What we know:
Blueprint: H1 2-14, E1 22-26, E2 38-44, E3 62-68, E4 71-77, H2 88-101, E5 105-114, E6 124-132, H3 160-172, E7 177-184, H4 193-201, E8 206-208, H5 212-220, E9 224-234, H6 245-269
Parallel strand pairs: 1-4, 1-5, 5-9, 6-7, 7-8
Antiparallel strand pairs: 2-3, 3-4, 5-8, 6-9
Helix pairs in contact: 1-2, 2-5, 3-6
Amino acid sequence: MMKYINETIEYLQKKGFENPEIGIILGTGLGQLIDAVEILHEVSYNHIPNFPTATVEFHKGKLIYGIIEGKKAIIMQGRFHIYEGYSLQDVTYPVRIMEKLGIHTLLVSNASGAINLNFKKGELMLIEDHINLQGSSPLAFKGVEHLGERFTDMSAPYDAEINDKFEQIAKTHNITLHKGVYASVVGPQLETRAEYRMLKIIGADAVGMSTVPEIIVANHLKLKVAAVSVLTDECDPSNLKPVDISEIIAMAEKAEPDMIVLFKELIKSL
């Protein structure tokens, strides 16, 4: 993997991706943050050596380098999922690249369904812990010990200081920001009523199909990391209706301005 990483790093450095401080992963329907960025360079994923290519129609597929709130950042406009046929190593490859380029902090966003019925669609949830239901680990490959500690500690995967700042920002700006546990499943099918009941029993407050692999690798690389979910639907197994993906995207876009405030104000404070 180091050979591939070095090839990718060399390409991006030649493109001007130099000394970033912060990495940002934008999830489903969450692309408006780019409007707050002074873009210096951008490259389509399919032009970057050894990079996966986003295949989901509502993921843009660009790596952007620019200035946001005075900080140099690399932003993934579109992410990868194992339901696209990628391995967990593919999904998390960009995190390794961002770390090698120099980031110290990774901020992640996603769209998810609310398992906790006290949470409503259109609100935000700060992830304080997670449950990996994707069936494997992005660290389960030969040679991982050359990239970081094989037995990575996950007792506190989300940075407490950053989470405290997110909560303070939300309070200042009157933004509803729940705290909870995010469960990551494979997908791409949505859950059955029985699966939603199971997720509630095991302690999940929200469910989605991403984020956890990136968080694991960020911890493997000893990055500071935090993640915010935009809750796009309410997963009540006693009152379950068919889900329209276009409605999920629309709800993510509606809630995104609050997430942008959180991210911009946080970055300003880092």
